[in-house]
Amino acid sequence: MRIIFWASFAAFAIDQISKYVVIHMMELARIRSIDVLPPLMNFRYGENRGINFGLFGGGSEASRWILIVLAAVICIAVLVWARKNAHSQISRISAGLLVGGALANVLDRLIYGYVLDFLNMSCCGINNPFVFNIADVFIFAGALGLIFFTDDNSTGSGSGSKIKPRKRAGKKAG
User: Fold this and answer.
1) Could you tell me which of 140, 139, 141, 135 has the C-alpha nearest to residue 20?
2) Which of 83, 112, 114, 141 is most buried, with most CB under 10 Å away?
3) CB of 61 within 8 A of CB of 39?
4) Is 80 exceeded by the pLDDT of residue 54?
5) Chain-wide mean pLDDT for the chain?
6) What residue spans of the chain are helical by DSSP H?
7) CA–CA dist 76, 65 (Å, integer)
């Protein structure tokens, strides 16, 4: 569980530091837009009151608290699941990234009432109107890591037994 804690802490800290630097120190909240590597990477100020890309963002106080509770429940569920199923180092790191990113967005909702977003990526003549943050990247990477790097050949009964490969017929040992 130690690796999950440190991956979580790193994701949380990197997200919060990046938001503080870009939004407050670089004053993105005031100037609203900074071209970094146009058109690929730009900073655009955003207040996300919903989930990814502002979906379900009615902006009510009730929806804010529902999203906070939902994120906390998901974090607890991931931690409980990871304790039993995340046997490899990379799957534990993935769980930590997901939890750390989710908690960073929860902190935004608690402090500001919404999640601060600032990253905008566009390419190839397509102007992407959506913004996201580093926590969203960690959540997405953590979820993908759990999907691709978690052992799926255990029985699930908690016995830890593995499926053994069959021996080929006609071959002699030795």
Assistant:
1) 135
2) 114
3) no
4) no
5) 87
6) 2-19, 28-31, 61-85, 89-112, 134-149
7) 17
Catalytic residue numbers, as ranges: 117, 136
Q: What is the pLDDT of residue 169?
A: 55
Longest distance between any two alpha carbons in the chain, whole Å:
75
* Cβ atoms of residues 142 and 94 within 8 Å: yes
- The pLDDT assigned to 159 comes to 41
Q: Which two tokens stand for residue 48?
A: 């996300």
Contact 93, 3 (CB under 8 A): yes
Residue 121, C-beta contacts closer than 8 angstroms, at least 6 positions apart: 40, 41, 42, 128
154 pLDDT above the threshold of 70: no
pLDDT bracket for residue 162 (50, 70, 90)? very low
DSSP string over 118-133? EEEE-BTTB-----B-
Can you tell me the mean pLDDT for 126-142? Answer: 95
Cα-based distances in Å from 160 to 156, 163, 166? 8, 10, 19
